[in-house]
Design brief:
Elements lengths: L11 H30 L4 H38 L5 H44 L6 H19 L3 H11 L7 H15 L4 H9 L1 H6 L4 H15 L3 H12 L7 H8 L28 H9 L3 H17 L6 H10 L21 H7 L12 E2 L6 E2 L5 E3 L5 E3 H10 L3 E3 L6 E3 L6 E6 L4 E5 L15 E2 L11
Pfam families: CTLH
Protein name: Macrophage erythroblast attacher
InterPro entries: CRA_dom, CTLH/CRA, CTLH_C, Fyv10_fam, LisH, ZF_RING_GID
């Protein structure tokens, strides 16, 4: 229905309706744009869904193998009892009783496995519901939960397990984080830090097919370390048996490393042989020509730290996680828009995040941001310099905004102090004197009025007679 204008021709009702509709449209467009940005950020939520799904697949495979193994053993036992003609009645009863007990144990395993699968399936469902629940009304709350998830992920990767658990419990986001997965990895990490390769080798055995598919050499590195520890303990016979049983099968693909490690039987880390004598700084000299640096790396206790890092990378890859913490990825996404060549200069402003070494290291592999239009920001006021607040050049070549210099001159009786060099400049009372600023060349000088006629390509000149003010031209 159309609304007729009022008799005076103003049409105020129609105008009011139009304004209201426009305001409502603007209010709606803002959340809509945020939701579209959020939709783009969902591309980073790959790990959020894949980790519980991969964990569920692993549980299903493990339960299937267990059931298949036990059922196969029961069928084999039944066949033996059936085929045995000399079996007495008591022996038959005993065998059947054993089979019943075994089937009852299998039933308990299957029930426990089913409960675990259901819990993991519920976690997958909860995460799908969490992603679908976001809308314009709860966007702020949803982003807050996402930030907490990212922080928990970072804490778990950095081994701050207790802090991560407390944050999860206080925020009640148990179904949205992967504490159980990281606790599984914690057992292997703690064992490696205690110089025990047993749990790590057991983990490799459970995931051998997937590690082989990804061409991982983590198990080979564990076997190398096991061999080195036997040599370190001077248990040479066990070291040789270990090499024959576990290292020899890797000779086809890792012959060079195998040859190097076997030399430790003859040239240990404390050898006096000049060609193989250990040199300080093994980690930095890993690529040295002689075997000595390689041997020292193998005997170096820091090799266990390398194995911990290697395990983390393999574990993240198999679980469908990003190799870098999510916090680093989100920070790099923001830093990529801020990174410019100026950020790595010594006089970079402290307000710039890239003035800090940690952020610089994080942004090192990132390309510089593409800037279509340059912006000048005043070093003093941190405000944008434009036509309303033009840039001014001091005689020492540093640029500041007009507003900053005027405020400084008013507060200090006409004195202007450069915050970078502590140089002090005064305003002058001179007849026919003027200050020339040529920003394009970065040169500023005082000139006499007679020199004015001989200057070429002058951008901006202002002559002041008996005025206590400096005016700086713009290039």
């Amino acid at each position: 229905m159309e609304i007729d204008p009022l008799p005076n021709g103003t049409g105020s009702v129609a105008t009011t309706t139009t304004i209201t509709a426009t305001a409502a449209s603007n209010t709606t467009s803002t959340p809509s744009s945020k939701l579209s940005q959020l939709t783009e950020s969902f591309k980073l939520e790959h790990q959020f869904l894949r980790v519980p799904f991969e964990h569920l697949k692993k549980t299903i495979r493990s339960n299937h193998r267990t059931a298949e193994k036990d059922v196969s053993a029961v069928i084999s036992s039944v066949a033996d009892v059936t085929d045995s003609s000399e079996l007495s009645k008591d022996d038959a009863v005993l065998s059947l009783t054993s089979l019943v007990s075994r089937l009852q144990g299998l039933k308990r395993k299957l029930e426990e496995g089913s409960r675990t699968e259901n819990l993991q399936a519920q976690k997958c469902r909860a995460r799908l519901d969490h992603l679908e629940s976001v809308d314009a009304e709860n966007l702020s709350e949803w982003n807050s939960v996402r930030l907490k998830r990212i922080l928990v992920d970072y804490m778990l990767r950095m081994s701050y397990y207790d802090t991560a658990i407390k944050l999860v419990q206080s925020c009640k986001i148990e179904e949205l984080v992967d504490i159980e997965v990281f606790q599984e990895a914690k057992k292997v990490i703690d064992a490696l830090r205690n110089q025990d390769v047993g749990p790590a080798l057991a983990w490799c055995a459970d995931n051998r097919s997937r590690l082989k598919k990804s061409k991982s050499k983590f198990e080979f590195q564990l076997r190398l370390q096991e061999f080195i520890e036997l040599v370190r303990a001077e248990n040479y016979m066990r070291a040789i048996l270990c090499a024959r049983r576990y290292l020899a099968p890797w000779g086809a693909t890792h012959l060079k490393e195998l040859q190097h490690v076997m030399t430790t039987l003859a040239f240990r880390s404390n050898t006096e042989c000049a060609k193989y004598k250990a040199v300080m700084g093994a980690k930095e000299k890993f690529t040295a020509v002689w075997f000595s640096s390689f041997d020292e790396v193998l005997f170096d206790p820091k090799q266990w730290d390398f194995l911990v890092d290697q395990f983390k990378q393999e574990f993240y890859r198999l679980c469908g996680m990003t190799l870098e913490p999510l916090l680093n990825i989100y920070l790099q996404a923001g830093l990529s828009a801020l990174k410019t060549p100026y950020c790595y200069e010594d006089d970079c402003t402290k307000e710039d995040p890239l003035s800090q070494d940690n952020f610089r290291n994080l942004a090192m592999p990132l390309p510089y941001s593409k800037q279509h239009h340059s912006k000048l920001v005043c070093y003093i006021t941190k405000e944008l310099m434009d036509t309303e607040n033009p840039p001014q050049v001091l005689p020492n070549g540093y640029v500041y905004s007009t507003k900053a210099l005027k405020e400084m001159a008013e507060k200090n009786n006409g004195k202007i102090t450069c915050p970078r060099t502590d140089s002090v400049f005064l305003s002058f009372r001179r007849s026919f004197g003027f200050f020339l600023s040529y920003i394009r060349s970065g040169v500023s000088h005082w000139f006499d009025s007679r020199v004015l006629r001989t200057q070429l390509e002058i951008n901006s000149i202002c002559v002041h007679d008996d005025l206590e003010i400096l005016h700086f031209g713009q290039g």
